[in-house]
């Protein structure tokens, strides 16, 4: 069964095609359309047969998918003989009111996502717009949404509920839903394969443009740092992370901002960007090295927020087998990994600085005598979405 996994941005469409009929689950091809709607969109494609790049106008996401199917069936570089070979398009969907897990995309699901547009303003609106267009243009193609919240359905109520009146939780869905579910699920499954111990307890540190930690016990999420929205928990490249809502009235009164304007600042101009004016960690590290004290503060605050949840999850799990770093920062910044693990010998966490600073790809970076193993594991959210779409279609979910 061949599954196309789509990653949608407001003006971009990226995809990977997997063959899940093959036990090795190979990625057959990948491609991207950037600057959708501009006079020239950037189109790229690669498969085992070669690569192609082009600049052509691509009006909307429907047109981008049509182009993708054309590339996949191209007589020279294509990997399938007809679009009917694609069993489904899987989406890493973020949040919907009253719906989680893995579902076929239909009107009810799209309306439920729209109901949470203001909870996930950066994610839901472009996804809903594009999914609606694709459902319209390709009515014969099954569309499957794998929600980021799904992996966290196992979090017990003591870690899932906010201390608000019960009806906020039961009637309005005000819960710690958690996100990055595909990534944390990948880490849960991969660490179970690699460490191969019963009842494995791991802390998955997904550190990227947005970041979250997840405590995983025997393959199941038992706590995670993001809550009702992906704006919460650790802070992010430009999003605030945990914040006291009672600070808002003071800011609104003093600045004359509306609630919407203040929420926009919290969702797009805060995090690393708010603290030091740079939202890519590489730029923050560079600025800190050049003596920028705000950049240095941003690094220290980011690490403190990670260690805050790390400490909580070491206690939550009791006896942790491994800490796993993943995503753009987790996989690529030895400095952040070293700062996170600094002076944690009392907790049985000993990083090997040479292993931390050298090597690439999946690897152990703790010392031989570290009780808790520390690993870098490149995440693969797309293969999780592809497997979930397959399982839904074949009725094995
Ligand atoms: P992601 O959201 O997982 O794609 O991660 C993207 C983020 O990873 C970027 O915004 C950077 O902040 C960070 N990143 C990528 N490469 C590096 C690197 N070599 N060193 C430090 N941070 C990096």
From TrEMBL:
**What family does this belong to?**
Belongs to the acetokinase family.
Alphabetized UniProt keyword annotations: ATP-binding, Cytoplasm, Kinase, Magnesium, Metal-binding, Nucleotide-binding, Transferase
The catalytic activity, as recorded, is: acetate + ATP = acetyl phosphate + ADP
Q: Name one GO cellular component term.
A: cytoplasm
Query: Which cofactors is this protein said to need?
Result: Mg(2+); Mn(2+)
Protein name (Swiss-Prot/TrEMBL)? Acetate kinase
Q: Its pathway? A: Metabolic intermediate biosynthesis; acetyl-CoA biosynthesis; acetyl-CoA from acetate: step 1/2
